[in-house]
Write a structure and sequence with these properties.
5% strand; two-stranded antiparallel sheet; 12 helices; mainly alpha
């Protein structure tokens, strides 16, 4: 059963889109991320313009993140205060990112920038994650103990003013670092349509030194607010959100997200990171390859005087 997408200006199979939403939602729940970095390359490979794919998938990220936060809340694994501070920075970043998106779209360069951003960001992050997880798996096979983590907190972060207490995260820290992380993720959310969990989670662990038990739930809570604002801004400012596509993906995402959370406890942490790293690398390469494949229906410029 096909349905026409008015903003994307093409028809898609409804069951295929629902299945895609379930599959990406499952991956999102399994790894505790929004899943936007995976959805956009798949949508683009199905023929949907990158600018529409990036803006429309925000609904799916919103659905999977909300579903996951509800589950994490039941085990008190969400630091709402920290999430609110990061979300405040994320909202400002989303406003900046949407304006950059609009300018690039008017210049006709947004599809190129989205593809290059996916290739560079996902390629570098996926490569680092794969290297770290494979090293951990090799050490475990050899029976070696993992390296002792650095317990010393960065002075340049903990010496900043305007400190706040975050009891659930076990931190007494300036609001500036988490707000700055949220700002960066907000810009990426608007430019790439990603929730940013693959950036926020490492930043929470290695920079802010938050408790590992609240990292994933808090990052997803921040993603909900930032993604919601991004989706509204994209619809109002750029008119690039295809609501029909967004609703179809959203329906599948809710179901898949819950199934992924139930499966997450069956894997080791290093195995999950290795699988996620491979998925991130494949998503980045998929978008990067679109830079070198000629379009099937290239536009032909015709001088006005010859019409």
């Amino acid at each position: 059963m096909d349905i026409y997408l008015p903003i994307a200006e093409m028809s898609v199979n409804v069951l295929t889109m629902i299945g895609l939403g379930v599959l990406v939602g499952f991956v999102s729940g399994l790894f505790g991320v929004g899943g936007g970095f995976l959805m956009a390359p798949v949508l683009v490979s199905l023929g949907i313009p990158p600018s529409v794919a990036v803006a429309s998938q925000a609904g799916h990220v919103l659905a999977t993140s909300t579903s996951s936060v509800m589950s994490y809340s039941q085990s008190d694994s969400v630091d709402y205060r920290m999430g609110a501070v990061m979300a405040a920075g994320g909202v400002v970043g989303a406003i900046i990112g949407v304006e950059i998106f609009r300018i690039l779209r008017l210049l006709g360069q947004i599809d190129l920038v989205v593809s290059v951003a996916y290739l560079l960001v996902l390629g570098s992050i996926g490569g680092m994650m794969l290297n770290e997880s494979l090293s951990a798996m090799l050490r475990r096979r050899k029976g070696e103990s993992p390296p002792r983590p650095k317990v010393k907190r960065p002075v340049w972060i903990y010496g900043l003013p305007f400190k706040m207490r975050f009891p659930r995260s076990g931190l007494y820290i300036s609001f500036i670092p988490p707000a700055a992380i949220g700002l960066l993720v907000g810009i990426l959310s608007a430019m790439m349509g990603v929730g940013g969990g693959f950036l926020i989670v490492p930043a929470m662990i290695y920079i802010l030194r938050m408790k590992a038990s609240v990292v994933v739930g808090t990052s997803l809570f921040q993603i909900i607010i930032t993604t919601l604002v991004t989706m509204i801004l994209q619809a109002v400012r750029n008119h690039s959100v295809d609501m029909i596509l967004a609703l179809i993906l959203l329906a599948g995402g809710v179901v898949g997200g819950q199934a992924g959370i139930r499966m997450a406890n069956r894997f080791r942490a290093d195995e999950l990171r290795a699988i996620m790293a491979v998925i991130i690398l494949m998503a980045g390469l998929q978008m990067g390859l679109s830079l070198f494949v000629p379009p099937q229906d290239p536009f032909v410029l015709v001088p006005t005087g010859q019409q």
